[in-house]
């Protein structure tokens, strides 16, 4: 079964584990002895942890080894990984791991043989081997108090007020020529001369007074138009904003993690 480095399998694995990074943890024995640090992790095609890559520093032995995940207890809050015993002899017998090493069935068998009970008489068929056959090496079970987080994605709807445009209201002046008519009056003098045709009228000499010069004065008046401009309110323009509300629907594909439980043999499983 092919194995993958953690970042090769999931480039965003830190987000998957809510920011926790197993590669930043140190490895201790349950008794509190520093054994080394976690350099990487190997997962199978389903993303299940199978090995921790450990940079050992145990009694002057410095090399990278593979530690089956079932032998460890990860404590993210304490930033530590605990192993229930990892002796100097086991480290010496474990094959050294290199970055570009292809981990095949032969390599894994060499690792498993170091951790298998030496008195065991169980044999395994390499061609039909599965990790479920050795839960002590590969299962993260209750005896190590492992806690897994199952994640799911949810759609979060939020609103943000953004400017989509603006309306500017202004005025401009238009000109046009208007005509207005005003009736005006003008006075003039009409002189009417009436000849006497009914015969001569005899006038008393005492009434006749011949004189020259001005004998009458009449004042003449006329109306002149007075044109001026006056401003009036033609109409009022009111500008205001109204808020319109609508419901926007969006959809996306979200993911949810479900728990896979593999059992082997005569196993009684109770879920709470």
What keywords describe this structure?
single chain, alpha+beta, Photosynthetic Reaction Center, Chain H, domain 2, 7-stranded mixed sheet, 5 helices, 7 strands
Give structural notes.
With 272 residues, the protein is an alpha+beta fold. It has a domain of 141 residues: Photosynthetic Reaction Center, subunit H, domain 2 (Photosynthetic Reaction Center, Chain H, domain 2). The chain is 11% helix and 14% strand. Strands 1, 2, 3, 4, 5, 6 and 7 form a seven-stranded mixed sheet that branches. β6 and β7 form a beta hairpin. About 3% of the residues have low confidence.
Number of strands: 7
In the CATH hierarchy, the architecture of one domain is: Alpha-Beta Complex
Strand content: 5-15%
> Which whole number gives the mean pLDDT?
82
Shape: rod-shaped
CATH class of one domain: Alpha Beta
Quaternary class: single chain
Q: How would you spell out the order of helices and strands?
A: EHHEEEEEEHHH
**pLDDT < 50 runs, ≥5 residues:** 141-148
Question: How does the major sheet shape up?
Answer: 7 strands, mixed
Gyration radius over CA: 56 Å
Structural class: alpha+beta
In short:
The chain is an alpha+beta fold.
Strand-helix topology:
Elements (H helix, E strand, L loop, with lengths): L3 E2 H4 L3 H4 L9 E4 L4 E10 L5 E8 L7 E5 L3 E4 L4 E4 L4 H6 L11 H11 L19 H4 L134
Parallel strand pairs: 2-7
Antiparallel strand pairs: 1-3, 2-3, 3-4, 4-5, 6-7
């Amino acid at each position: 079964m092919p194995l993958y480095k953690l970042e090769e399998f999931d480039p965003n694995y830190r987000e998957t584990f809510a920011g926790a990074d197993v590669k930043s943890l140190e490895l201790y024995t349950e008794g509190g002895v520093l054994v080394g640090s976690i350099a990487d992790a190997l997962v199978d095609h389903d993303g299940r942890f199978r090995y921790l890559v450990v940079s050992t520093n145990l009694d002057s032995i410095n090399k990278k080894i593979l530690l089956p995940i079932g032998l460890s207890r990860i404590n993210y809050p304490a930033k530590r990984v605990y192993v229930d015993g990892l002796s100097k002899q086991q480290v010496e017998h474990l094959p050294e791991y290199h970055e570009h090493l292809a981990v095949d069935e032969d390599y894994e068998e060499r690792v498993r043989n170091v951790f298998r009970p030496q008195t065991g008489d169980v044999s395994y068929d390499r061609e039909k081997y599965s990790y479920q056959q050795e839960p002590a090496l590969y299962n993260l079970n209750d005896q190590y108090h492992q806690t897994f987080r199952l994640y799911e994605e949810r759609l979060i709807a939020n609103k943000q007020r953004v400017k989509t445009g603006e309306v500017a209201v202004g005025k401009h002046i238009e000109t046009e020529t208007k005509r207005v008519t005003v009736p005006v009056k003008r006075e003039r003098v009409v002189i009417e001369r009436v000849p006497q045709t009914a015969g001569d009228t005899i006038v008393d000499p005492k009434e006749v007074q011949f004189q020259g010069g001005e004998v009458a004065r009449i004042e003449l008046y006329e109306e002149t138009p007075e044109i001026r401009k006056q401003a009036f309110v033609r109409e009022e323009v009111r500008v205001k904003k109204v808020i319109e509300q609508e419901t926007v629907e969006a959809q996306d594909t979200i993911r949810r993690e479900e728990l896979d439980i593999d059992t082997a043999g005569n196993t009684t499983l109770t879920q709470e």
